[in-house]
Design a protein that fits this description.
The chain is 6% helix and 52% strand. By secondary structure, the protein is mainly beta. It has 2 domains: 89 residues, no CATH class; 82 residues. The longest helix has 6 residues. The radius of gyration is 20 Å and the shape is globular. InterPro entries: F-box-assoc_dom_typ3, F-box-assoc_interact_dom. This is F-box associated beta-propeller type 3 domain-containing protein.
């Protein structure tokens, strides 16, 4: 298990020959935690990234890479990727329409990384439609997908639900607002079957 955490320390990458050298560029030190089966071998250690940024979302681990939403030092929204084998950071640009805050979640949707805004419940309540930004891993482009959830309005009327996660790669899970819990604790929409299930 790998966890990336920002520290407050900055230094020049050219000062340490064991680190990637980036001429005339100030980089930021991050902390990487590697968890092994041997607890004594698990530890935090510093790592340098030439892309100064601050994480703002939870991470998604997929195919040996950790993805997480972040803000650059110029306050631009990006998705960062960290390859746990090579320990390289990369920046994935986002569409200008996406302004990341903690309400966004990175998920695995049909094998691609995607972004969902779990606070966008007004449109879901009114029309049973929710939006997802999906990145095509071949060309690197993001596409905005509007997902119509059949029978949402007649099933839940005006109750407030928030997106929580994907189950596998083709099911969307929603949970009600605490004031609307009642007997429904979770709702799963199976995209392939176009099927809604209360749990």
């Amino acid at each position: 298990m790998v966890n990336v955490m920002v520290s407050n320390r900055k230094q020049s990458a050219a000062k340490d020959s064991d680190l990637q050298k980036v001429s005339d560029e100030v980089t930021k030190e991050y902390q990487v935690y590697t968890m092994t089966s041997d607890e004594e071998s698990s530890s935090w250690r510093p790592i340098i990234c030439k892309h100064d940024h601050a994480p703002v979302t939870e991470g998604l681990f997929k195919g040996g890479v950790l993805y997480y939403g972040a803000k650059s030092n110029s306050d631009k929204s990006v998705v960062m990727s960290f390859n746990v084998s090579s320990e390289d950071f990369s920046v994935i640009e986002l569409p200008k329409e996406v302004e990341l805050i903690h309400h966004w979640r990175l998920v695995n949707y049909k094998g691609d990384i995607a972004l969902m805004h779990y606070g966008e419940y007004y449109r879901l309540t009114r029309s049973g439609v929710t939006d997802m930004w999906v990145r095509n891993e071949v060309d690197g482009n993001w596409e905005r997908n509007s997902i119509k959830i059949s029978h949402w309005k007649e099933t839940f009327d005006n109750k407030e639900f928030h997106f929580k996660a994907t189950i596998g790669t083709k099911e969307l899970a929603f949970a009600p607002h605490p004031l609307d819990w009642g007997t429904t604790l979770c709702v799963v929409f199976r995209c392939r079957r176009n099927e809604l299930q209360k749990i």
